[in-house]
From TrEMBL, chain B:
It is a multi-pass membrane protein. This is ABC transporter permease. It is found in: Cell membrane; Membrane. InterPro entries: ABC_transp_perm/SBD, MetI-like, MetI-like_sf. Residues 230-250 are annotated as: Disordered. The lineage of its organism: Bacteria, Bacillati, Actinomycetota, Actinomycetes, Micrococcales. GO terms for cellular component: plasma membrane.
C-alpha cells in the first residue's frame, strides 16, 4: 500500500491501455479500450447487455484476463501482481450479495481482513463498526445472510468490500436486484459514504438514470465492446456524441439534464396560507384562487381552492398537493413541483419542510432557456 | 443345530436367541466387529481415492464427462465376480475382497463429493474468488462447508452398500457376517442362514441411521437459519442434490 501514498495524485488510479478481450475467437467483448479512471471519483460503466462493461470491470481485478492490452493500477501493470493479492487490495460488490451462507454477517464482513492476517477480535470489531457505516443495526451482525432482506444483504456486501479499507471499489450492478425504493436509498447511501471515504469507485450498471445520479464520469459502452462516450453525466445527457449514445440515454434526456442545473436563482413567490385549526371556522375566508393549507409548524398539507372554501373544514377535504421543491435543489425538481401541483404553483420548502412560497413553471422555463443561451454562447458561439 | 420346528422363522428365532451364538470368536458380536473392520478399511481406501478426485472435479469442472461415464461402468461391475477375478489375478486372502468392495464404494462417494462441491452456489464461489481467496481457500472454506451435507450423503450411500456386501469376504476367509451365510448354505442350516441375514440387515440400518444423524449435524447453522420463504428455492435445490447423490447410487 505504500506505493499508493508515494505516487503523484495526478496519475489516474486505473488506466486501460488498448485492452481487448475476445472469447474463443468470436467477436471482441471489449475492443481496444483505452480509458483513465480518476482517483477518488465514481466512474460508471453503462451500456446495454453484451457491451462488455462487466468484462471491463472484471479485468481490473483479473477475474477476466485481457486478450491483449494493459491495465495499470496506480501505474503498476495488474498482470504482474498475484491475482489473490490484487483482489484483496480492491473491494468487490456484485449484483447478488454473494455472501457466504454458512458464516455470520460479521464474519462475512471480516473475510478480507482475516485473509490479510488481522486478528479475529480486531477484524470482528472493525466489522461491527462497518455495520453502522452502511446503516445496519448492530444486532444484525450475529445473523446469517439467509435471514436478511435483499437490501440488507447488499448493504452487508458493501460493508464487506470496505472492510480492508481498499482504495478501489469495484461494483458490478450492485443495486439492480432490489426494488426501486430500496435502490434509491442505497444510491443515496453510496453517495453519502463516498463523500466521507473518497474511494476510487468503478460502478457497472445498465440503468442510465443510475449512471447519471452516481457518476462523476460516465462511460457509455456500445454493443461489441466499443467505448462510445466517456464524459461527465451532464455532458452525456446534453451532448450525446452519436446516435447510439443519444438513443441509449433515451427520450427523457432533456428533462433528466435538468437534474444538473441548480435552482439557486429561481424566484420564490409568496403564497397565502391558512392554518389547519382555522379551516373549520367558516368566517375565515381566503382571497387567492389557491390557498396553501399548512399545519402549526408551517408544513404544507394541500390546497384550498377559493370556490369550494365553504365545503372544506378538515385537512382531509383539501386538494392534495404535488411534489415539494426544497429551496436550492435542481431545476428538474422545481419544474416537477410546479407541473405536479393542482394549482400550477410548485410549493417550495426549506430544509425543515416548512413552506416558503411557490415557484412557477414559466419562470423555471425562463431559467432553463437562459442557461441554454449561456451554453450556446460558450460552446458554439451562437446566442440564439 | 437342532431346531424345535421346521418353520423357518422359528428356526431363525431360536438361532438368534441361542446364547452360544453370542459369545466366543465365532459368535455374532465378534463377527460384527470383523465385518465393521472390513467396512472401515474399505471406506478408508475408497474415500482416500474418491474425496480428492471428487473435490478436484467439483471445483474445477474438469473431467466431469470422464467421471460420469466411468462411474457408470464401475456401478455395472458385479462385486462377487470382481472378488474371484482379483483372487485369480493377484492373491488369495482378504485383499481381493477389499479391493472389490472399494470398487463398489467409490462411485457413490465420488458422485456425492462431486455433487456436493458443485452444488454450492456459483455466485458465492465467484464472490469469494473476487475477494481474493485462493483456490484452496475457496475449496476448504466455502465449497466444503456448504457442500458437506451432500458429500456425507455420498459416503452414507457407500457405507450402506458396503455393509450389505462385505459378506463376500467370507468366500475368501472365514471372517465377517458373511460366514453365517456361507456356513448356513453349506450345512443347510436355515436358522443360521436367515438369522445371519437379519443381523446384517439390522447392522446396515443402524449404521445408516448413525450416518443420517451425522449428516443432519453437518448442515452449517447459516443454512438452517433461513427466513421463512427466503432461499426456499435454493434449499429445495440442495435437497434434490442430496437425493440424487444418494438415490443415484442405490
Amino acid at each position: 500500500m505504500t506505493s499508493l501514498q508515494q505516487s503523484p495524485s495526478g496519475l489516474p488510479m486505473i488506466q486501460f491501455r488498448r485492452v481487448t478481450k475476445t472469447y474463443d475467437g468470436g467477436r471482441p467483448a471489449v475492443d481496444e479500450l483505452t480509458m483513465d479512471i480518476d482517483r477518488g471519483k465514481i466512474t460508471v460503466l453503462v451500456g446495454p447487455s453484451g457491451c462488455g462493461k462487466t468484462t471491463s470491470l472484471r479485468m481490473i481485478n483479473r477475474m477476466v484476463e485481457p486478450t491483449s492490452g494493459t491495465i495499470l493500477l496506480d501505474g503498476q501493470d495488474v498482470s504482474r501482481q498475484k491475482a489473490a493479492d490484487l483482489r484483496r487490495s480492491m473491494g468487490y460488490v456484485m449484483q447478488s450479495s454473494g455472501l457466504m451462507p454458512h458464516r455470520s454477517v460479521i464474519d462475512n464482513i471480516a473475510t478480507v481482513p482475516r485473509l490479510n492476517g488481522v486478528k479475529k477480535d480486531e477484524a470482528r470489531r472493525r466489522a461491527q463498526e462497518l455495520l453502522d457505516v452502511v446503516g445496519l443495526a448492530p444486532d444484525l451482525g450475529r445473523r446469517y445472510p439467509g435471514q436478511l432482506s435483499g437490501g440488507q444483504q447488499q448493504r452487508v456486501g458493501v460493508a464487506r468490500a470496505l472492510a480492508a479499507d481498499p482504495p478501489v471499489l469495484l461494483m458490478d450492478e450492485p443495486f439492480s436486484a432490489v426494488d426501486p425504493v430500496v435502490r434509491a436509498e442505497l444510491q443515496e447511501e453510496l453517495l453519502r459514504l463516498q463523500r466521507d471515504l473518497a474511494k476510487t469507485i468503478v460502478f457497472v450498471t445498465h440503468d442510465i438514470d443510475e449512471a447519471t445520479i452516481l457518476g462523476d464520469k460516465v462511460a457509455v459502452f456500445a454493443v461489441g465492446g466499443r467505448l462510445a462516450q466517456f464524459a461527465a453525466p451532464e455532458e452525456i445527457l446534453r451532448a450525446p456524441v452519436d446516435d447510439f449514445v443519444a438513443g441509449f440515454v433515451g427520450r427523457d434526456r432533456g428533462f433528466r439534464h435538468l437534474s444538473f442545473q441548480e435552482g439557486n436563482h429561481i424566484t420564490i413567490h409568496p403564497v397565502e396560507t391558512i392554518e389547519e385549526d382555522r379551516l373549520a371556522d367558516p368566517t375565515v375566508s381566503v382571497r387567492s384562487p389557491w390557498t396553501l393549507l399548512v399545519d402549526a409548524d408551517g408544513r404544507p398539507h394541500g390546497w384550498v381552492p377559493q370556490a369550494t372554501r365553504g365545503s372544506i373544514t378538515k385537512q382531509a377535504e383539501a386538494v392534495p398537493g404535488g411534489s415539494l421543491y426544497t429551496r436550492g435543489d435542481t431545476l428538474r425538481r422545481a419544474l416537477d413541483a410546479a407541473l405536479s401541483s393542482p394549482s400550477g404553483l410548485g410549493v417550495t420548502v426549506d430544509d425543515e419542510g416548512r413552506a416558503l412560497g411557490v415557484v412557477r413553471a414559466a419562470e423555471v422555463f425562463d431559467l432553463i432557456e437562459s442557461a441554454r443561451l449561456d451554453r450556446g454562447r460558450a460552446d458554439h458561439n451562437t446566442a440564439v | 443345530m437342532d431346531y424345535s420346528s421346521n418353520n423357518l422363522f422359528v428356526q431363525m428365532g431360536e438361532w438368534l436367541s441361542d446364547p452360544v451364538n453370542w459369545s466366543g470368536p465365532r459368535g455374532i458380536p465378534m463377527r460384527i466387529l470383523e465385518h465393521l473392520g472390513y467396512v472401515g478399511l474399505t471406506m478408508l481406501i475408497a474415500m482416500a481415492i474418491a474425496i480428492p478426485l471428487g473435490m478436484f472435479v467439483g471445483h474445477t469442472g474438469r473431467g466431469r464427462v470422464l467421471i460420469v461415464s466411468g462411474l457408470g461402468i464401475l456401478r455395472a461391475l458385479p462385486t462377487l465376480g470382481m472378488v474371484f477375478l482379483f483372487a485369480l489375478l493377484f492373491s488369495r486372502g482378504v485383499l481381493p475382497s477389499v479391493w472389490a468392495l472399494v470398487l463398489l464404494a467409490v462411485p457413490p462417494v465420488l458422485s456425492g463429493v462431486y455433487a456436493g462441491i458443485s452444488s454450492v452456489n456459483r455466485t458465492v464461489v465467484d464472490a469469494a474468488r473476487s475477494m481474493g481467496l485462493t483456490e484452496w481457500q475457496i475449496l476448504l472454506r466455502v465449497e466444503v462447508p456448504n457442500g458437506l451435507q451432500v458429500m456425507i450423503g455420498g459416503v452414507r450411500a457407500g457405507i450402506l452398500q458396503v455393509v450389505a456386501t462385505a459378506t463376500v469376504v467370507a468366500y475368501a476367509k472365514a471372517d465377517g457376517l458373511g460366514v453365517f451365510l456361507v456356513e448356513g448354505t453349506q450345512i443347510n442350516d436355515n436358522g443360521r442362514l436367515f438369522g445371519g441375514a437379519v443381523v446384517i440387515a439390522v447392522l446396515a440400518v443402524a449404521v445408516d441411521g448413525l450416518m443420517a444423524l451425522i449428516q443432519k449435524f453437518a448442515i452449517p447453522a447459516g443454512l438452517r437459519a433461513t427466513r421463512p420463504g427466503a432461499g426456499s428455492l435454493k434449499e429445495s435445490g440442495r435437497q434434490e442434490a442430496v437425493a440424487s447423490a444418494q438415490g443415484g447410487t442405490t
